[in-house]
Write the structure tokens for this entry.
Amino acid sequence: MNFSYNETQEMLRDTLARFLADTYDFETRRKMIASDAGRDPGIWRALATELGILGAPFSEEQGGLGGGAVENMIVMEQLGEAIAIEPYLQTVVIGGGALRAAGGAQADALIPQIIGGDAIIAFAYAEPQSRYELHNLRTTAKKDGPGWVLNGHKAVVYAAPWATHLLVTARTGGGQRDADGVSLFLVEANRPGIVRRDYPTVDGFRASEIYFENCSVPDEALLGPEGGALPLIEKIVDEATAAVCAEGTGVMRRLHAGTMDYAKQRKQFGRAIADFQVLQHRMVDMFMEAEQSASMTLMATLKLELPDTERMAAVSQAKAKVGKGLKFTGQSAVQIHGGIGITDELAIGHYFKRATMIEGQFGSVDHHLSRFERLSVGD
Amino acid sequence: MDLEFSPEDLAFREEARRFIAENYPKALRGKQDEGEELAKEDFLSWHRALAKQGWIAPAWPKEYGGPGWTTTQRFIWSEELARADTLPILPFGINMVGPVIYTFGTPEQKARFLPRILSGEDWWCQGYSEPGAGSDLASLRTRAVRDGDHYIVNGQKTWTTLAQHADWGFFLVRTDPESKPQEGISFLLIDMKSPGVTVRPIITLGGEHEVNEVWLEDVRVPVDQRIYEENKGWTCAKFLLAHERTGIAGVARSKRGVERIKNIARSEMDGDKPLIANPFFKRKIAELEIDLTALEYTELRTLASEASGRGPGPESSLLKIKGTEIQQRITELALEAVGHYGAPYFRGFGEGDNEHPIGPDYAHRAAPTYFNGRKTSIYGGSNEIQRNIIAKMVLGL
């Protein structure tokens, strides 16, 4: 057993941490979010070319750093510490993960573009009625000559306004909630028949509602088996869930550290509020939540390649635990800060907002508790 | 002991219900349904309708313009307001400074200020907290120095709710820097249009402009705008805090909130069933309702003992803690219920913007309301401070 990072992994963590500390301070982030594009493309470019981290989980033959899920975990935790809005999760973890798993010509063509910072992928999987059920799909893809025609509405697609490609789940057969008949497509974002409505999200990202209106895509757009892509999609989403657990761990660490700093400085009743035992215990509880999140994230990340049911059980345990921790840590941070914690001016409130959104991302606490229950104790 | 309403009470309930149905401003209802930002005039339109009827200040003694209702009638009234989902009446004039003025003010002060509070002519704000004085309110540093018939006030207040609309503010200021913290404070009424008063917005996490900083620079305040004796302002402040806490339970509003969550959960699908059929979610609603009933009957017991002559005491801290915890859980459940559609940030309708917001109507404000709701366990004396009050004043620890 070895839980230490190797030298390359340590370097990855330290390089990224330094880069984010230098370039991603709170004011810079605020300006980025307020700009028309909602991001600074130069940062993404720098992550690709200066740091080379967009290749972290890809093999060396593919032009990557030869890492995997652990590298994604390292990157996501650092991005969480900076509440960065970079589309690493969508592009590298999810898009890259799908391409690696599916292989083929699409993968060969696109992975170098991801690593080089030229491709941004958004994951269009949720629908207005789907909640967290991945196979609950009304979006359809119908065979049409040599290609496919997509129709349907995808909800709250993070990073879609920035994307060059969309990874889309659609039904090629079966009924709305059947496990069979689910397929996965990778389509260029600017294809005719794709209508987007863009908007900011409460946690500082940009997202879109996406409407496919008789959108024709070539046959190569199909990724993985026709009608049998659900296991692949479940695996990709589990990888993404482990990644947001890592991000959540980074967010929690900063919520805790920021609260500690504030409580030591803030004086009431003639002493620092950190002197009050009731607040000390609360900060101890925050610390314990952050530590347990790190543990659960590591556990889930290391089990991503196990057989499906073991992987699912591990990821759901992690997300349920991390989700609870995010809520407790976020609420406690705001409470200990007092009124200033609810203002837009201080970073802490923005960590709280991201924490809140991670809580629901790829399944709420209840969703993952239920999935774990089914796997652990049966129906 | 009796849980049933008398025939008179039931008749009152009918009257109250009819009045709200016939008089609640229609324009306001529309704006609330659409989640539009409310202007000063929106708040005032409902205030004026109630003032005209003589129902604006249910808790005030009749001699000062209250309707003379029994405790039960007041309870029924707040239930009916919540049931109709009316805009809350702003508390700063009616619930806060009004009772201070009729309890501690001179006859001249009562005649000057109370009628304008009732009519809504004056919009009030509260100048209590300072950047360095939050939970430790008595450490406030805003200074008022006597200069003939005036005080000259200098300092900074913060978290001043809706001060951008205010005509008047009630302020705690230090008039004796030498004595113990609580003993050198006075309670001043300040015309917000006075030279030297500056109001600056604080934007909160949901993007709202609800609270402000108020800067006071050499503001001249006539001495006859001081309530009660010089250096005895803490007495008024403590009285007011206890008053603020009874309303803060918000039982009727929370009942309405529980209904709203049930409605959302009936609309949202979870697999092939509505979310309300999800046993986890159902259980959380049930637990919330049970806690709300416990709060309701605790409040009723407090009201009953008030009716028998005891003023609201430190027990009201219990109502504040449990009331705000429940309010926050309601916002949590609402956000959980809306799923993915909690994420889109709805900035309200800008000028010329008539696009429908993203997702179902009940989802637009779920996240901002949750974020903003964190304030309730902080304001009005944080819940930690309330627990200290119970420990000290109720348990004698």
About this structure: The mean pLDDT of chain A is 97. Chain A has eleven helices and ten strands. The longest helix of chain A spans residues 230-265.
